[in-house]
Amino acid sequence: MTGEIQKLAPGLYFVSTPIGAARDITLRALDILASAEVIAAEDTRTLRHLMEIHGVALAGRPLIAYHDHNGEEARPRLLRALAEGKSVAYASEAGTPLVADPGFQLGRAAAAAGHMVTAAPGASAVLCALTVSGLPSDRFLFAGFPPSAEGARRRWLAELAATAATLILYESPRRVGDLLTDLSQSFGEDRRAVVCRELTKRFEEVRRGTLAELAAEFADRAVKGEVVVLIDRAPERAADAADLEAMLCEAMKTLSVKDAAAMVAEALKLPKREVYQAALKLGRDG
């Protein structure tokens, strides 16, 4: 890198790193990595290599490993640096910090101590997968990694089956076939889904289909690389006669038959004429 880098204000800087293509890092992320007084990383070897690719010298600054297995030991050291008025950059191994990443406790502790906490946004497998999936993006839920044990995974999926949003999961390549089979059984074979593999990398792959089709495709397939699974939102439950009657009775306590029918028809996505006839019948019977 060339050019003068301005000194950073004291605080904690979360730095997003590429999920595959090294050039996906942002200029601001490189500026922060070049000028932070202390650098922490989920994987120090990965970050050191990324900095070398972009010509960012460590220049004698501390590079501290901070991950799931050493957080209790490493976090106090980083908090001391913040208390001393230093700028601390934390970089995930790949993607956006705190998304399936151990930075949460560090960010919460820094904020609780009154330190500035900010982020240099960038690559995220969640958003990249959602963008290319072709599934609705106006509402989505990132649910992380499913439990690895079969029984726990099925119970976990059962709780998510009715989610009225595109569902996004991370999964190990070794278990993606089992996950798709369980999804097909829990969510229904015809539910639309997408499997994204190795996003932004040379062998990027996006497979779309029903859960049944994808489960069959991945059942006996050896899969490599990072995997994101997306499932279309749960279909809207059709209203039954009891729902319609109950809503009409409640609405007609304060509204005219016509207005009550219009409101309920809109709420249940039913033809207005059909709901109006039901409201008239209730009025006669009542």
TrEMBL record:
Coiled coil: none
Compartments, record wording: Cytoplasm
GO molecular function, one term: methyltransferase activity
Matches recorded under InterPro entries: 4pyrrol_Mease, 4pyrrol_Methylase_sf, 4pyrrole_Mease_sub1, 4pyrrole_Mease_sub2, rRNA_ssu_MeTfrase_I, RsmI_HTH
GO biological processes: methylation
Ranges where the Tetrapyrrole methylase domain occurs: 12-215
Gene3D superfamilies given in the database record: Cobalt-precorrin-4 Transmethylase, Domain 1, Methyltransferase, Cobalt-precorrin-4 Transmethylase, Domain 2
EC number, UniProt record: 2.1.1.198
UniProt keyword Aminoacyl-tRNA synthetase present: no
Keywords: Cytoplasm, Methyltransferase, rRNA processing, S-adenosyl-L-methionine, Transferase
The keyword GTP-binding belongs to this UniProt entry's keyword annotation: no
Residues in RsmI HTH domain copies: 238-282
Catalytic activity: cytidine(1402) in 16S rRNA + S-adenosyl-L-methionine = 2'-O-methylcytidine(1402) in 16S rRNA + S-adenosyl-L-homocysteine + H(+)
Recorded family membership: Belongs to the methyltransferase superfamily. RsmI family.
Function noted in UniProt: Catalyzes the 2'-O-methylation of the ribose of cytidine 1402 (C1402) in 16S rRNA.
Name assigned to this protein: Ribosomal RNA small subunit methyltransferase I
The species this protein was found in: Albidovulum sediminicola
Gene that this polypeptide is encoded by: rsmI
